[in-house]
Amino acid sequence: MSSAYPAPGPAASAPVCPRHPDRVSYVSCQRCGRPTCPDCQRSAAVGIQCVDCVQQAAKSIPGRRTIFGGVPRAGRPLITIIMMAICVAAYALDLAIPNGFIFQNFAYAPFLTESEPWRMLTSAFLHSSSIMHIAFNMYALWILGNALEPAFGRIRFLAVYLVSALAGSVGVLMLSPVDTVVVGASGAVFGLFGALFVVQKKRGGDLRQILVLLAINAAIGFIIPNIAWQAHLGGLIAGALCTWAIAYAPAKNRNVIQWGSVAAVVVVLLALSIYKVSTFPTFLIG
Asked: pLDDT digit string (tens) for 100-143?
């Protein structure tokens, strides 16, 4: 007696990972159902998901932001460290290069505003030969940067710092004799003091310590000679204005309002500079 058996058919193909077709995988993604090899597997709340589904899900989740709209970053305040490094490097170069080359080419004086306007910013990264000058400014920058940069995010913090530095030079331009020569990060640092004041007010914190600190530093500018209180005042006002826009901008269209306000502060500073230069005697221009 003979028995009939079904004819043998083609063997069922083994499931393979779409990203790695040479790898057999019997584990399927819980979202899309496709096979996923060990290298493409990602642990999820329930089961395993493939790397493609995880990436797609991440795109649909809004990015985390600080309370002022910046991107939160772990670790040390990078922009603060970079600003300090530039200042220290410029200080070392000024000491190393003879004949005051760095000072002569990058310090700011009002009568140079039209011919060499970049000095309004470069001077904020220079310091006098006194070690106390740079030491105080770097210490203050480190303390303020650690408090403000994580809250603002890197880009907003850098914007406040640079606008305050520019405003410090504008303060010197508006309130000092035309032949006054200034260097130092004090304008930018006072801008950060103004920023910290606004942030504390926004958060409902105690303002007395900041006010006392501001009063002491403002008094030093009048008591100790050769300190440009005009730069302190300009930086303080600009830093506070920029931070007010950043801190109090409504959630709707927040980026547009924040950056538009910062740009408006810059436009006002440029307008003041152009107006002041137009009042200079002709022999001082150019």
From this structure: 899 999 999 999 999 999 999 999 999 988 898 899 999 999 99
The 3 state secondary structure assigned to the chain is CCCCCCCCCCCCCCCECCCCCCCECCCECCCCCCECCHHHEEECCCCEEEHHHHHHHHHHCCCCCCCCCCCCCCCCCHHHHHHHHHHHHHHHHHHHCHHHHHHHHHCECHHHCCCCCCHHHHHHHCCCCCHHHHHHHHHHHHHHHHHHHHHHCHHHHHHHHHHHHHHHHHHHHHHCCCCCCECCCHHHHHHHHHHHHHHHHHHCCCCHHHHHHHHHHHHHHHHCCCCCHHHHHHHHHHHHHHHHHHHHCCCCCHHHHHHHHHHHHHHHHHHHHHHHHHCCCHHHCC
Active site positions, annotated? 186, 232
- Whether the per-residue pLDDT at 148 is higher than 60: the answer is yes
- pLDDT tens readout for residues 235-263: 999 999 999 999 999 988 899 999 999 99
- Which string of b and e fits 230-245 if b means at least 16 CB within 10 Å? bbbbbbbbbbbbbbbb
Mean pLDDT of 89-98: 93
Domains of the chain: 15-61 (no CATH), 78-280 (1.20.1540.10)
Q: Is the pLDDT of residue 218 over 80?
A: no
Which tokens hold the place of 171?
A: 């303060």
| pLDDT the model gives residue 219 | 76
Q: Tell me, what's the pLDDT at 99?
A: 86
